[in-house]
């Protein structure tokens, strides 16, 4: 079963552009990771929201230690207000149009 993740990244206001660019740079690399079904960056009120879908928990676990994500750390150092807020969602049985 697929695993859906939503992560909120809160850049410091003066670093919003740099943090956004850092994520945009790694998108192609993450899209190429095994098991990546969706990795989409969104933005609202100065907060970046990553919506992810992985084919399995194993694929998500591999992503968490993959080079693309590991390389983000130094690019984000001192530019975000803490660690990302990550939620792993549980789908409810509402039909195909109701799930990611």
Question: Explain this structure to me?
Answer:
This protein is an alpha+beta fold and 100 residues long. The protein has helices at 16-31, 57-64, 67-76, and strands spanning 3-9, 36-44, 47-54, 85-89. The chain has a single domain, classed as Alpha-Beta Plaits (2-Layer Sandwich), CATH 3.30.70.100. The protein contains 3 helices and 4 strands. Strand 2 and strand 3 form a beta hairpin.
What's the structural blueprint in terms of helices and strands?
Blueprint: E1 3-9, H1 16-31, E2 36-44, E3 47-54, H2 57-64, H3 67-76, E4 85-89
Antiparallel strand pairs: 1-3, 1-4, 2-3
Helix pairs in contact: 1-3
What's a concise summary of this model?
This protein has 100 residues and is an alpha+beta fold.
User: How many helices?
Assistant: 3
CATH architecture designation? 2-Layer Sandwich
Supply Rg: 14 Å
Beta-sheet strand percentage?
Answer: 25-35%
Low-confidence stretches: none
In N-to-C order, the SSE pattern is EHEEHHE
Shape: globular
Structural class: alpha+beta
Main beta-sheet annotation = 4 strands, antiparallel
List keywords for this structure.
100 residues; alpha+beta; Alpha-Beta Plaits; 4-stranded antiparallel beta sheet; 4 strands; 29% strand
